[in-house]
Automatic annotation (TrEMBL):
Gene3D superfamilies: 3.30.420.40. Belongs to the anhydro-N-acetylmuramic acid kinase family. It is an enzyme of class 2 (transferase). Keywords: ATP-binding, Carbohydrate metabolism, Kinase, Nucleotide-binding, Transferase. It comes from Komagataeibacter medellinensis. Its EC number is 2.7.1.170. ATP binds at G10, T11, S12, L13, D14, G15, V16, D17. This is Anhydro-N-acetylmuramic acid kinase.
Length: 371
């Protein structure tokens, strides 16, 4: 068993989620403390600019390097806070910040300085989780399904775990244990951008704006006509894939636009082609705090839709815990992707190990022969 700190900064660009997990990458012995370190507004803006320009940015761009350093600094801070609470951590799983995801061009780009994180914490860091699968022809996302399946621990299916982050993704564990997954469509990202544009707040807090609006059905069907939604899984998205939807709803009132974008996310979930209809949906990610999204999903799906807390899970820390879990899988050479999850050719391991400078070889590395 390893004690691992998992670090995740998602597509919402809202900050770092950090969590401690005890796991061997197969079984989960337990969880330690978790925390969220929000990015200040200026860093969000800078990171957003990098993300918007990522298709043309050279990797050595000074602006990119500055944002990468600043983002890593928050990860260092988060990891150190957890180290102060849990002194015997073995390693770190560090997702980094996705600024571009283009698997069709064999490219996925997470920024973050693993050397700096390793040096500052004295710990070995597993990072770059997605590129091995993308290089092999897979989508490189979503990667959370192995973790969802381990948490479900053979519970009778078919059950769906839905993450509503900036992008939304689903894991379906079928009755025979097969894990199916894909990104379903937008999650909160469009709503966040719309809310920022019209209210100056980073998100539509508690869905208050959307709740006052009426869905524009013509626009909604127009948005859902995108071929992505009919494509079978596995499939994955960049945060900006549906950014043009904001222009398409630009003539709506702020409230109607928010209502239409909220139902866009929900209908994209409902229309996702799945091999089995889930009898139960468990929801994690920030979108489960939005009552408009949750209400619309209950109406659209017609089966129980509940936050993952119903299963005793922590829906805000789940992705951070996941990258701790995947780090443990990585050091053991276990798969973190699979053909039914990311569409790659095989069950593949992934992640890269970075140890800063002359750090003493950790005990776990001697035991696993990974050194
Ligand atoms: N009270 C709330 N009301 C409405 N929306 C909320 C609320 N709380 C959180 N959110 C939404 O949740 C988002 C953050 O969700 P989360 O942290 O799961 O995203 P992420 O991990 O960055 O994304 P991804 O999973 O795509 O990487 C916020 O940007 C916001 O849109
Ligand atoms: C490329 C990338 O960072 N994708 C994220 C994003 O955020 C949600 C969805 O799109 C998911 O595919 C993935 O994150 C989770 C943690 C995953 O890999 O499972």
């Amino acid at each position: 068993m390893f004690t691992v700190i998992g670090l995740m900064s998602g597509t919402s660009l809202d900050g770092v989620d950090a969590a401690v997990i005890r796991t061997d990458g197969e079984r989960i012995e337990g969880f330690g403390p978790d925390l969220h370190l929000p990015y200040p507004a200026a860093l969000r803006q800078h990171a957003r600019k990098i993300l918007d320009e990522a298709t043309t940015l050279p990797p050595d761009s000074p602006a990119l390097k500055a944002v990468e350093h600043e983002i890593t600094r928050y990860h260092v801070d988060a990891a150190r806070q957890l180290q102060a609470l849990v002194p015997d951590v073995d390693l770190i799983g560090f997702h980094g910040q996705t600024i571009l995801h283009a698997p069709a061009r064999h490219h996925t780009w997470q920024i973050g300085d693993a050397q700096y994180l390793s040096r500052a914490t004295g710990l070995a860091v597993i990072h770059d989780f997605r590129s091995a699968d993308v290089a092999a022809g897979g989508e490189g996302a979503p990667l959370v399904p192995w973790f969802h399946a381990a948490l479900l621990n053979g519970a009778s299916g078919p059950a769906a775990v839905l993450n509503i982050g900036g992008v939304a993704n689903i894991t379906l564990v079928d009755t025979d244990g097969t894990i199916h997954a894909c990104d379903t469509g937008p999650g909160n990202a469009l709503l966040d951008d719309w809310a920022l544009r019209h209210t100056g707040t980073a998100c539509d807090v508690d869905g208050k704006l959307a709740a006052m609006g009426t869905v524009n059905q013509t626009l909604l069907e127009d948005l859902l006509a995108d071929p992505y939604f009919a494509r079978p899984a596995p499939k994955s998205l960049d945060r900006q894939t549906f950014a043009a939807a904001l222009d398409r709803v630009s003539d709506c009132t702020p409230a109607d636009g928010a209502a239409t974008l909220a139902v866009f996310s929900v209908e994209a979930i409902r229309r996702t082609p799945l091999p089995a209809r889930p009898a139960h949906w468990y929801v994690c990610g920030g979108g489960r705090h939005n009552p408009v999204l949750m209400r619309a999903m209950r109406t659209a799906l017609g089966v129980p839709v509940e936050p993952v807390e119903r299963l005793g899970w922590n829906g805000d820390a789940l992705e951070a815990q996941c990258f701790g879990f995947l780090a443990a899988r990585s050091v053991r050479g276990l798969p973190i992707s699979a053909p039914t999850i990311t569409g790659g050719p095989d069950n593949l391991s992934g992640g890269r190990l970075t140890c800063a400078g002359l750090m003493p070889i950790p005990a776990w590395m001697r035991n696993t022969g990974a050194a």
